[in-house]
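ugh ok so i messed up the first submission bc i forgot one of the chains. this is the corrected input, ALL of the components this time, i swear. 1035 residues overall. if the numbers dont match what u have on ur side tell me asap before i send this to the collaborators (the ones from the other lab, u know who)
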Amino acid sequence: MTEPEHAPRGSVLEIDARIDTAPYPAVVADAAGIVQALNRAARTLLPGVRLGETLTASAPAWLAESHARLAVAAGPGPTAQGWVDRRSLEGHPVRHDDGTVTWWLVDDTDTRLAREALRSEQARTAFLTEVSTALLGSLNLQRCMEITVGLAIQHLCDAAMVIAPAARGGRYPTVSGVRGSEVVHDVLDVDVEEVPGLPEALQGFPPVPSRWLDPMSLPDWLRPAGFGEVGSIVVTPLPGHGVPAGALILVRGAGAGEFTEDEEVVARLFATRAGVAMSAARMYDQQASITETLMRDLLPPPVHQLSGVEFAARYRASQDGERVGGDFYDVHPASREDEESLVVLGDVCGKGLDAAVLTGKIRSTLHALLPLAGDHLRMLKLLNGALLNIHDARFATLVLASVARAGAGVRLRLTCGGHPAPLVVRGDGSVEEAPTRGTLIGAMPQVRATTAELTLGPGETCLMYTDGITEAKGGPFGDELFGERRLHRVLGECAGMPAEAVVERVQMLASQWLGRGAHDDMAVLAITAPRGQHLTAVGGHGRGRYTA
Amino acid sequence: MTAGQRLTCTWAVAGRRTGRLTIVGDLDNDHADEINRVLVEGLAAHPGLRAVHLDCAEVAFCDSYGLAALLMAHRHIRDAGARLHLDNLQPGLTRLLELTRTLEFLTAEAAPSRAEKFDT
Amino acid sequence: MTDPTTRTPTGPEESLPQHPLQQYRDALWASAIAGDEYGATDAVLGALEAGVDPEAVLLDVVGAVQRKVGLEWAANRISVAQEHTATAIDERVIGAIGHRVRTEPHRARIAVACVDGEWHALPARLLSEVLRLRGFRVDYLGAQVPAPHLVEHLHRTAPEVVAISGSIATRLPTAHATITACRATGVPVIAGGAAFGPDGRFARLLGAEAWAPDARAAADRLAAGPLPRPENSTQAIDDLPHLADQEYTMVTRTAPQLVKAMYTGLELRLPVMERYTDQQRQHTAEDLDHIVQFLATSLYTGDDELFGHFLRWTADILEARSVPAAFLVPALELLGEELRDFPRATALLEGARAELSAALAGTKESA
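and heres the new structure output, hopefully the right one now
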């Protein structure tokens, strides 16, 4: 700020005319703080200031204090800053030779307000950006509630609680926290009607503004644990995507001061963002659990050792984001040890969910036909009839395997319906194709198939697979098929391995062959006759059934 | 994501009774539907055909989806009253058709009635 | 993972000069390698019955045997079939221990997964079991977890931490994507396994909140308190500003062509390749592919040492199988010619080639 042009340099006991009519208020005081002169503008601005009285007695405190500091300081002296009514003033001191000082008071209200608005706007934007980043990352409702409470107690208040709409059983999931301690999850069995505005906020209807509560009439469950006297408390609805996301309760301690208008705006914006994030998380969760329920029957089942035969299987859906696809397998255990278990592995043409739905139909049809498993051809014909009515040319290829323990080995009956024949790895590492062939299922009115019967000796494996393995395209040069020859060679190295190790090895090599390439669904299932060491072992770890 | 090469299908008619669809490329999940699109248009434009030849000389690859497309093509051709012929089958495709026992079915004489007997 | 023998196991007969659990290790090793599940189960249950701490049985018996499997395979003293068999048996044995010893979960929920494309699931499985023993609630997602599945799991279950295991360095770029995806959901990551470097440098580089050299250290770290929540202000590229030169992208994108060019070039330089069997050809092509993958990973991480270490390891593996490692030098030269327009790759290849030639010359002299 430049000095007014005609600031007096000498003793100023009288204000000259030009100063008197200057647009800036000017106050002259001596070293002891006694007011010596005032111009017209100063008299209007500061009607309480009188000639001959001290600044301390009659002027705003900030001016009197600055004047007192100036008296002991050297040099031109710092400017003073303060408010008169609703105007912000900057006081520029001009020292005179006789020790008096003229304070020129310049109104900087607009600049100051603009600067403060800018600062608070920046802080608000930064805060809301932080809120969005933190909340958008998670699609987990609990985590979103935690983040909301955490941010609220960090930036807006001393304690906070998020109440989600009632879960099953009419209880309310909550997350609450007090600044300086960890947030707490709880499920409350309470009457929200006790709190004015809360039922509406939780229902999302009718729309309600933030509501201030009387700290004296709070129900106990709303009082933050380990928190002193509540100064102010406000309930804000959390609006979601068309569905209520819950309510946010912000609490300040007795000494903390009420929310300013500006803080209320920020709190509302915060609640909007938190609400959207929480309702997105809730919808994701609902979708995910619906999908999970529907998918449960389409997922490949876990496969274990059964009735003295090792089974192992692995599956990888073509799209990385999906867990189901067009390949399927099932192991239906025998009800008695000496009966046959039925294994099915197959492939419906196509990928993804459409294909998976058809696999579901095939699997449940076969399940229903289990009593006929003694006659594979009959089973395939009935399945064919059930699938033929579908109005596109979707078909399935599959292998049926009836499996039973026979002495130290395993007896197999294998029937292919248009599927690559299972491969058998003998103890010496030779690999043979099971001699079975048959019509694919679901496209043609007639079904023909031949069944192969064979026996696995201890340590020998029968591998069923889908063409996703042999048609895996890649390799070091990027454009070769994995192919049947390579599969035979790989299996030759698997002689004597346990079933899980065989399927792991085959799927590992096919997946590595693919590298990053696109692929079809892949399924492999191994049936292995356990190796014979158990006969000589001693001890009691459930091996009795193998000594027969 | 697409691994296969593009598929092109060319439709031509020889005389009044014979249609020919020349297939060049991969019959796979991403492309196989193309043969039925072209085939359905061709059959509609030329009613009364007795035979449709699918020229497979340049079918590089066929997966189960491609086979489904061939079965669908068979259905369209049969419904139009014609018989399907598969020409110039390459060993890979022949093997797939034999493995699934579809070769004979696809190229059999059109069934006289639509009410075919099902196996039970 | 560090050698567990440097730690003090809790068990009987501490005074023996050899490892106090050696008898159990020997028994398990013999059974596992023979595919004898029952003998293997007897060995570990015997240790439990003798009062050995279950965690020591998992880490210092099963874990030690599994490390031996890796070393014996590398030295070509066991076959691929034996390696897979022993691993499958160890898996079953871990299941048996889990049935025998249970701890009620009373600690935080932890998700344990392998990097996608990682086939060594056993370290992650061991970590899961150790965490369960210590009372954590563990979701073991297994090997081959595509990042979208892992992220979906994190959204649904909101675990306190996700532990990511990786042993193959070439999966580091995938690991980075996975770690970034996990952190974006607000779940902190602890990384472990050989892929992240003996000092955990790649875990830090790729943004993980913590690193542990082995399962015990990971469990100790998690038991000590929660990991800091990830700060989400950074993007994946901020971790690795050198990726701006696109060399990694170019090398991965053209990998099959690079392998082809190296293979063709080698055929001209090494006439012996004409007589290779199909399988030898495939192995050679796969070795070349590994060179390209490791080069790409070095470019990705900006760590030259990773490539040099891989070449020394490969040379050892080849020597153990009586395959002359000398072809590696011309292979590097051929790759260098293909990548001459890429300064970072060129410098890396030149340095590695010089080091390898010197090492191979040294071996010959001493032989």
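quick check: DSSP finds four helices and four strands in chain B. that seems consistent at least. Residues 8-105 of chain B form a domain with the Transcription Regulator spoIIAA fold (CATH 3.30.750.24).
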